[in-house]
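Human
Can I borrow your eye for a moment on a structure tokenisation matter? Give me a protein, with the fold worked out from its sequence. Write it directly below this note and I will take it from there.

Assistant
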Amino acid sequence: MCSEINYIPLKWAIEKHDMIIQISGGLPGITKESKNHLNSILTFIKDTKYYPSFIEKLSFLTYTIAKDHIFIDGNKRTAIALGAYFLELNEYGFLVSHYMQEMENYIVWVMENRLTREDLIEKIKYILLDIEEPEYFKLNIIAKLNQ
């Protein structure tokens, strides 16, 4: 979409988290160490050596914020919301609703270790390409969830 990728500023990420907690409940806040870690995540996704594509950047952002428990509470909700904002910033706004709907379950399954980070990346790829997942992917996910 965008020729140049737009990124989320640290201050905005923290404000978005606080807003999510205020609306949906939970404990607000972030520790100093976690704030530094969040800043590292938001900086690291800019590195094209490790994350050359937008799909890889979005996947890393979503996965790491949830998995690393950056905030005191609401990490899965914030991971999804920041991913949606990252989409919006980069002219993928037409996919935000679909992304949020799909990530609601996928991020939980990944955090429960029922699905892998690679499964999440593949799912996000299908969302960004705006295509239906192939049967092999659906069957793989079903098999993993039934274990």
